[in-house]
Amino acid sequence: MKPKKYAGILLHPTSFPGPYGIGDLGHQAYRFVDFLERSGMNCWQVLPLGHTGFGDSPYQPFSAFAGQPLIISVDKLKEYRLLLDSDFTEMPAWNPEQINYGDLIEFKTGLFKKAYDRFLDKNYDDGLSKDAELMKQYRDFCDNTVWLDNYALFMAGKDYHQGMPWYMWEDDLKKPSKTVKEKWMKKLSREVGYYKFLQFLFYTQWTALKKYANDKGISIIGDIPIFMAWDSVDVWAHQDLFLLDTKGYPKVIAGVPPDYFSATGQLWGNPLYNWKKHTATGYEWWLERIKHQLQLSDFLRIDHFRGFDTFWAVPYGEETAVNGKWVKAPGVNFFTHLEATLGYHLPIIAEDLGEIDESVTELREKMGFPGMKVLQFAFENPNENDFLPHNYDRNCVCYTGTHDNDTTLGWYNHAYEASKDKLRRYYSTDGNDICWILIRACFGSVANMAIVPLQDVLCLDSWARMNTPGVGEGNWAWRYKEESLDRNLEARLYETCKMFGRY
Q: What pTM value is reported for the model?
């Protein structure tokens, strides 16, 4: 029996339309799921859903477990009477196609704090009231979420220290004992409760949205970065799991070596894992992380999959990645232990792009994880290559492009003539309607999964790309307009899915 064939759209929730400066988990999220269903789609891929830090990148979250507060629906808080229409009188005028994170964070933080104040001030004596039920759900969430105390204390601690990273805090909180944590939990009790409240809202809203999608036959593809940000609760609370010195500074940091694209490599700055300690604990932290993420999604893409085979370790303090070295990671033992403990095959998609050697491919194939095929890469390379569809096997995920690529239209407009010529000859086309030529190619490939960024479905140029690697500003900001998703687009997607057996 052939495995099910999937067709889906890559779209982060921040890109939904709406009146509050950023996409959220409210009405437009449900409208998008309805659009997917009517278009014949059966999956939706998102970027990491974590609480973002400096730079707004979903790949540098404050926590491996906490959700992104910025996408909490404030309309749903109105339904609970935690926000009033009068709270929105000084709302900035937003660009409907671009997120301004500076103004947005200030605006939504103000709303969330008003909602939290009202939440604390409600009278919950009546056990039958809607307010009392909300408080009960909140307390149940707090009592049954094991990572929540550390996260809430970490975020409250950052606020107390005006946003300074944890390794610059006073010594007793920099590496706190249980007693010290209890002292600070009391000292910052209101602030700690605020961050717990935000996570309760996020998880309540996301869980409802995921169920809505699943009930319509749509699977969620989640995403996690392999490494954690240095200034994250996981590094702060589990310092023995990372290669840190006694002051909390990394001994070595993550990156990639020099290659065709960069003569000095890339320094990412993430502290590297102490794999000996992880192994000694039976990969406990990783087990909790993977289990947690697979409650949020049905499949899980892992960014920089090759880091589970070997990772590039650069001494902390180096200005470039040149003086790093490859270090062996646990590889197959890690994944077989996870699967044996969890009792099921992990529905993981391996991000295996970039410089990949045979050892990484062997690991992916041994575990049966699908890799990624990006059509843009097929034609950037003038030679025969593995990204050309005639070289695919079924166990892969085909993309026109990813969040790190230019949009298909932008890529084609800026591509070398040799790349355009190769594509035109390969598909016997004059290059008109280039986005849909590659969408059809993606859906028509033998890949079990075919995913297309919404920007390509909408035929948008480079201004709509989600991220430009190596550029620190202006990323993660694109949004579409509500009127962009119409019935003509649904019909075209539906027919394409049906044509290639993905409906």
A: 0.96
